[in-house]
Amino acid sequence: MTENTMEPFFENIQDPRHHNKRHKLIDIIFIAICAVVAGADTYEQIENFGNQRKKWLSKFLKLPHGIPSHDTFGRIFERMIPNEFQSSFMRWIGSVAELTKGQVIAIDGKTLRRSHDKSNDKKAIHMISAWASSNQVVLGQLKTEEKSNEITAIPTLLKLLDISGCIITIDAMGTQKKIAKTIINKTGDYILALKENHKTLYDESVLFFDNMEEMKNQGYAFDEHTAVDGGHGRIETRRAVVTSDIDWLEDRENWEGLKSIGMVESTREIDGNRSHERRYYISSLDADALSFGCAVRKHWGIENSVHWVLDIAFREDESRVRKGNSPENFAAIRHIALNLLRSNKTFKGSVKTKRLNAAMDPKYMEEVIFG
Question: Left, alpha or beta for 352 (phi > 0: left; psi -120 to 50: alpha)?
Fold first, then answer.
């Protein structure tokens, strides 16, 4: 029997069953992860994968009572404590994904639209995720009851992660003094989006950059960088401007580590139609427009590389897994599967194509699961 290298990271999860433990908990988790990698989106499909791949699974698991039923998978993930599963997930990813100094970690939220349970008056859950831009992996996730609760959940997630030397990027919902302080206390840096939820700070920044030429004449220093790319009838110009001359900024001393403010101006031309947008940020970094602009752009990778992929390749928004703790635990399994598929470089293709390949080719599945 080949060693299951995942087992040490998940073996300490508390088993929610008090009796009738015909199947080992770690076996149930391992089968579920493999099944979701191979395209399973429901407990019935997980059971079917197990039955179809029983011989292959027996290389890593003893399976004295065969493959668990879909009801068994459902009951386990409905009752399993999410925080324990999340902690195991983070220990595992911490062992395989080495973070480099200066790496951007984007934090953003996503609502699992069909996770609501009307019969039990349960709203759809909202998950916040931390995504490492260079490694292209999800580092951790945490559930909130509503999008507005990101404010309290983000510091909790940050405390669970090793962010030392990394740059944390968060949209305007997470631009909070407590969050900035948490990041600095953990020896990280931040770039936080500014909108009108901090009206005075936002208005002052907008006015300052609107009058940038006049400010230059008064001796204020700005660092600027412009990047242009395009294709297929699209041209996008992004100008990043940042300054560390912020002694005039009201309330700046109450933002832990604040060193600069920045603006990204985007002009997009598509088939002759032109759009223009400015976005504003506060940061604990010194003024460096190139690094600032790159970090801001990398933040939006969580939308394209995580949220969009979960919807398109894993059909997350269509999932009707909703009982008990199932939505949160199943979301963690999807993140594990996404990390495994993204980390594998032996097969070039989309995540959706990689899932199909894993379903058809046991050898490729082994490469994905064990590296």
Answer: alpha
